[in-house]
Amino acid sequence: MGKGFVYLVGAGPGDPGLVTVRAREVLGRADAVVYDNLVHPRVLDWAPAGAERVPMGKIGHVHQHSQEEINQALVDRARAGKVVVRLKGGDPAVFGRLGEEATALTRAGIPFEVVPGVTSASAAAVYAGFPLTHRDHAPSVTLVTGHRRRDGGTGPEIDWQALARASGTVVIYMGIRQLGDVARRLVEGGKDPATPTAVVERATWPGQRVVTGTLGDIADRAREAGVKAPALVIVGGVVGLRARCEWLGNKPLFGKRVLVTRAAHQAGELSGLLRERGAEPVELPLIELRPCGHTSGIEAALRKLFAYDWVILSSANAVRFLFERLEALGLDARAFGAARVCAVGPRTAEALAGRGIRADVVPGRYVAEALVEALAAHAELRGASVLVPRAREARDVIPNELTRMGARVEVLPIYENVKPATHPAEGLQALKEGRLDLVTLASSSAARNYADLCRDLGVPADRIPCAVIGPATERTARTLGLPVAVVPAEYTLRGLVAAAEEYFLALGG
Predict the structure, then answer these.
(1) Could you tell me which residues come within 8 angstroms of residue 194 by beta carbon, excluding any fewer than 6 positions away?
(2) What CA–CA distance (Å, rounded) separates 161 from 373?
């Protein structure tokens, strides 16, 4: 088999949003991903599902694999003809062993490419709330490792006196365990012990912490705060700018951990909105959507779609499954013919527009009752033929009310909500330990499954406040004894996040 190829890729400091476009591109073609523990798990999701995932490197303070073992893992997989992506936290060219891994590949005759990443020094400073350079405080930046070699290497030692005389910012990687010694050496070298200093723990990750002080007292402050690796130490006048430049801690949901219970393929939207506002979303899908219904009955209804007066779609999921069934029959938006379409809300209308269908009616309130009112105001329903493609478990408000008004209604269950067979370990652990500030529930099914899961785990379902979308979900949650704390005025994901902000603001943050 011919030689493969290796990409030596910087995965950035932690926040997946800081991964470069190029890094994501090469991940998408990987046969194998060799990564260390500073890589965010979501970054690994960008590799193909069938790609081999190989954790190698440092876990906690312990090196689980030697550099020679890592080098050999890259060479062996490339020789087997694989496209290998070596993911390193930060930038592989900054204390990322790029030189050693590239040398090993060159000696083995393996072609490779280096993809730089956002270095942790820059990200840590920015996310802590200050720049690395400033024309009044820091005309230069020095990056130095606080980690001492234990392999008998002959590389140069750090000139602490020269470092202490540097006029700019000093960033110390891997120095938290030697922080007291590092600070002492800098002071002995002539650095003013009153120099502003910051320690940034888990920079850009959820739960980032920043401890500030002076060079003379930062070791004690970090120890008292229980700071652990990974953490960077930043020394210089720029740290004093934090009061004017901080932004992350000013986000309205900063530091809040929020459980996202939507189906796996839908969770990303809510998680993204929460991250934008500073929260840490923890995904624990409590429903799984899958097609249902008798194929023959669905096929018959869809082939005569044009013959209905109205087609009513109450969710973006209904749109998705309806068009999947149409596509399986070789049909598209033209199958609607002259049938008019009603969508329960703007997201459903957007989903329809993406399929080439403009909704004729979109109610102002995004609930079934409002949809019936809007439809009745728009058209004469007596004798009208109406098709309602929907979830098997959906409420009967729409068909019952339309039937009462004289319409001929055909309900067509095309998908169903089921409980997922497995759950992400992170979400389960957070729920077991109660390390959550809010639980989001976007449907009655999610509320019921949440209550069931709490019972199965033996944890009280009423200990974490819940945010719900819509009155139907609220009624279900309250009936189950769940502590409903957030009910948005607008029944959308953005409305839910806005209401969560108001809730935490009322609690004093």
Answers:
(1) 214, 215, 216
(2) 78
pLDDT at 267 over 80: yes
Residue type, 492: T
Residues 17-69: tens digit of each pLDDT: 999 999 999 999 999 999 998 898 889 989 999 999 999 865 544 557 889 99
228 in catalytic set = no
> At residue 157, what is the residue type?
E
Residue 457 has pLDDT above 50, yes or no: yes
Give residue 365's pLDDT band: very low, low, confident or very high (50, 70, 90).
Answer: confident
User: What is the rounded average pLDDT of the residues 481-498?
Assistant: 93
Q: Could you name the CATH architecture of 257-287+420-506?
A: 3-Layer(aba) Sandwich (3.40)
Catalytic residue among 36, 88, 91, 256: 36
| Strands 231-235, 196-201: pairing kind | antiparallel
Tokens, residue 271 = 């998680």
The whole-angstrom distance between residue 74's C-alpha and the CA centroid of its chain comes to 29
| Active-site residue, from 3, 15, 45, 58 | 58
Give the mean pLDDT of 502-509: 87
Q: Is-contact 10 88, C-beta < 8 A?
A: yes
Q: 290-417: same fold as 257-287+420-506?
A: yes
Is domain 122-150+157-246 classified as CATH 3.30.950.10?
yes
In CATH, the number for domain 290-417 is 3.40.50.10090
What's the CATH class of domain 5-118?
Answer: alpha beta
Note whether 81 and 4 are within 8 A (CB): yes
Annotation says 360 is catalytic: no
* Entry field: residues in the chain: 509
